[in-house]
Amino acid sequence: MTENTAVLAAYGLQKAYGSCMALDGAAMMVRRGDIYGLVGRNGAGKTTLMRLATGQSFPTGGELELFGASGKAMRPQRARTGAMIEIPSFSPFLSARENLEYYRLQRGIPGRHAVNEVLELVNLAGTGNKKFKAFSLGMKQRLGLALALMNHPDFLILDEPINGLDPEGVAEFRQILRSLNQERQTTILISSHILSELSSIATRYGFMEQGRLLEEISAEALHDKCRTCLRLEVDDAPKAAAVLQSQLGTDKFEVLPGNVVQLYDCLDDPKRASYALAQNGVALLAMEQKGADLEAYFLNLIGGGHYA
Who's near 239: CB < 8 A, 6+ residues apart? Predict the structure, then answer.
């Protein structure tokens, strides 16, 4: 896989902890410029996959590529990544600037301006001498993000970064990630239990269950699958399609197997569709309004159950 097409790629990736397979043949691809939303229940393998990507753990099978490099050649490529798998260990009695300066010196990042730059980026430049112990959860999360950004990464890996944040904190975090992606062209891999928030920023999704990637899909394709429609069961789908075009003047429909037509028009007045079909000799056997959000789509993908 060339660097131009993939930042992170996994092929049959496995990770075993004793007899437990945390990853069992996972295959995925994060392309340059993606905000890739990784969706899965607790224990699905999301954090394990991220730990492998950052070098905190190593696979027991399969292959992992970072910027087109694999094996030992991945090590220098990891300098191009930043990660927040959990909130780093910050000193409770130091300010945001002091904490970041400590890590800057420890990691050998040149220039004190690096600290000021990331504090501005995550909206913490105005915290002054306020100690970390007095920070809100949202401020702590943003400081963790600032640390992940100090080396100007091309690829940012974030595990559940918005869990526990209030709506204002979530909105602020979301805006920061959008700016990073759009203004700095930072590729982002993010997992979250707040699926509605993923749906507002992700450009691509991967759905995980029991250590495997069940599906990868673009945000545009997912929107098309989840958008609200009228599901029409008729006796003659081709004839129904012709009626919808000629009588209602719409081409916003799909003809599916089993004499089913999904109509994305007339949602506010479904009687128009049923009347037009009846007047033109098409028997309408059943009609229902359908639509799904990200959580409903995921639950349907894994065969029901609860998301937790």
Answer: 280, 281, 282
The class level of CATH for 8-223 reads: alpha beta
Sheet strand arrangement including 155-159? 81-84, 155-159, 187-191, 35-40, 204-209, 212-218
Task: Report d(CA 127, CA 279) in Å as an integer.
Answer: 69
Q: Is 4 exposed, middle or buried (0-12, 13-18, 19+ CB in 10 A)?
A: exposed
Q: Where are the domains of the chain?
A: 8-223, 228-290
Whether 232 contacts 260, CB under 8 Å: yes
Instruction: Give the Cβ contact number of residue 227 at 10 Å.
Output: 13
What beta strand segments (E) does the chain contain?
A: 8-17, 20-30, 35-40, 61-66, 69-70, 81-84, 155-159, 187-191, 204-209, 212-218, 229-234, 253-256, 260-263, 284-290
Model pLDDT for residues 248-300, shown as the tens digit of each residue: 999 989 898 999 998 988 888 899 999 999 999 999 999 998 877 788 888 88
Fold exhibited by the domain 228-290:
Alpha-Beta Plaits (3.30.70)
CA distance 160 to 191: 5
Angle at 243 between CA 240 and CA 249, to 5 degrees: 130
pTM for the predicted model, two decimal places: 0.81
For the stretch 180-228, pLDDT in tens is 999 999 999 999 877 877 888 999 999 999 999 999 999 998 887 788 8
Q: Are strands 229-234 and 284-290 parallel, antiparallel or unpaired?
A: antiparallel
Place of tokens 């397979």: 21
Same fold, 8-223 and 228-290: no
Which three-class secondary structure string do you get for 46-80?
HHHHHHHHHCCCCCCEEEEEECCEEHHHHHHHHHH
